[in-house]
Design a protein that fits this description.
The complex is a heterodimer. Chain A is 35% helix and 34% strand. Chain A is an alpha/beta fold. In chain A, strands 1, 2, 3, 4, 5 and 6 form a six-stranded mixed sheet that branches. In chain A, α1 links the parallel β2 and β3. Chain B is rod-shaped. Chain B contains ten helices and nine strands. Chain B is α+β, with helices and mostly antiparallel strands. The chains are: A alpha/beta, B alpha+beta. The interface between A and B is medium-sized, with 23 and 27 residues.
Chain lengths: 106, 317
């Protein structure tokens, strides 16, 4: 199990992809939090890619929820990519975020 | 203290007329006694024993019998002791008039003053009894509400979230195999890594590792974020792991729990709410004790996945 977090934020004028990999929790997700906050406030096409994440906690879920709500106010929807059998998707579903963001499941 | 007993009005536990008869008897007895002493005492000293008798009467028999005794007492006092003695003639000297006035003033004051004190005391006693009754009813109502709340939460979470007390958690968790101090997010990270390693060492099934890890991170994170510090411990009970986190923070707002336990989907209860939702979902049982002294949460997970019927105890168990 990888206990570290890999975070990558790629953005241009119109869209952004925020990638989170490894183990993401409140102790190591400050960069993810800040990056997602920044792109969600300015862009309508934001994808969060969690396909390489093994674990996320509710601090990350809360970041996603905040970003989704900010984008919803502008009429845009956050997209989240995750693997069907992976733990992060279970947490996202339990947290009830399907109603405020779109999941792209592999 | 008045009451009724089969239609018979009772005062201080006795039929009302007994008190009046006793008051008259006391006055009569005192008059006879004073008649014997009359040659040895001055007239001006007589109001004092009458006042003492009235005090005794008002305290023991009540205000009504004392007023009767005061009125009846003036007649023998005037007849026997006020010159010209043994007659209804008017007193000749001013000091004899003074004795009559003194009798009325002193004894009247005693009856009125003591009567007022008695009534005030009675009112205070009734008020205290009423307050005590209200406090008892309030306590009963609170206990009922707490129990209803506990049962509702338990039922709504399918028996997974159990509201309990700290002693109960300490009793069933027993001695820890590992402990961690939680003062910072680094401590939470350390607890996550070490507790997960300890869980693997204890034989946790790989399919449950992330469930356990989520419980560790959410419970420890709550202590570090919302209570500033706390302590975590891992307990191994046969084929179960129990991860306990204690903090001395302000406690979980009781009003937040129903939102966590009852709301389907996204809740506005914040990270605390989401954290509990995750813990309730991934642990087999969550024991929670929370009040203004802090929060203790115990997360129980079987080492191997358990079927739904095994994991969920009957609601009233």
């Amino acid at each position: 199990m990888d206990d570290s977090a890999q975070i990558c934020i790629a953005a241009d004028d119109k869209s952004a992809v925020v990638t989170g990999g490894g183990t993401l929790d409140l102790t190591n997700s400050a960069e993810f939090h800040e990056g997602l906050r920044r792109v969600s406030e300015s862009l309508d096409d934001v994808v969060v890619d969690l396909r390489d994440a093994f674990f996320i906690d509710t601090a990350v879920v809360q970041d996603l929820a905040r970003a989704a709500v900010v984008m919803l106010r502008r009429g845009a929807r956050l997209k989240v990519k995750a693997r069907e059998s992976a733990y992060p998707l279970r947490v996202l579903r339990i947290s009830g975020l399907e109603s405020i963001m779109d999941f792209e499941v592999e | 203290m008045m009451g009724t007993d089969g239609g018979q009005r009772r005062v201080r536990g006795r039929p009302w007329w007994v008190n009046y008869a006793a008051a008259v008897s006391i006055q009569a007895g005192l008059t006879v006694f004073l008649m014997c002493l009359h040659p040895h005492f001055r007239l001006g000293e007589f109001p004092a024993p009458y006042a003492a008798a009235l005090l005794f009467t008002v305290l023991l028999l009540g205000e009504g019998p004392a007023v009767l005794a005061l009125i009846l007492g003036i007649f023998p006092f005037y007849f026997y002791f006020v010159p010209p003695a043994n007659s209804w003639g008017l007193p000749g000297k001013p000091e004899d008039w003074s004795a009559v006035v003194a009798y009325l003033l002193v004894n009247g004051t005693v009856v009125v003053a003591v009567g007022m004190v008695q009534r005030s005391r009675l009112r205070a006693e009734r008020l205290a009894a009423s307050l005590q009754e209200h406090a008892r009813l309030l306590q009963k109502s609170e206990a009922h509400k707490r129990e209803f709340y506990k049962q509702t939460i338990r039922a709504a979470t399918n028996g997974k979230l159990i509201i309990t007390d700290r002693d109960e958690i300490d009793r069933f968790a027993g001695e820890p195999v590992r402990e961690w101090q939680l003062s910072s997010l680094e401590d939470v990270s350390k607890a996550r890594v070490e507790a997960t390693a300890a869980a693997r060492q204890a034989g946790i099934d790989e399919s449950r590792v992330y469930d356990f890890m989520a419980c560790v991170v959410e419970s420890s994170g709550n202590a570090a974020k919302h209570a500033a510090s706390g302590r975590a411990s891992l307990h191994v009970l046969g084929d179960k792991l129990v991860f306990v986190v204690k903090d001395a923070g302000p406690g979980i707002g009781a009003m937040q729990l129903p939102d966590v336990a009852l709301t389907r989907g996204y809740t506005t209860a914040g990270t605390l709410g989401m954290g509990y939702k995750v813990m309730i979902s991934f642990a087999d049982r969550v024991y929670l004790a929370t009040d203004e002294q802090g929060t203790t949460v115990a997360l129980e997970l079987a080492l191997s996945p358990v079927s739904e019927s095994e994991a969920v105890p009957p609601v009233n168990a």
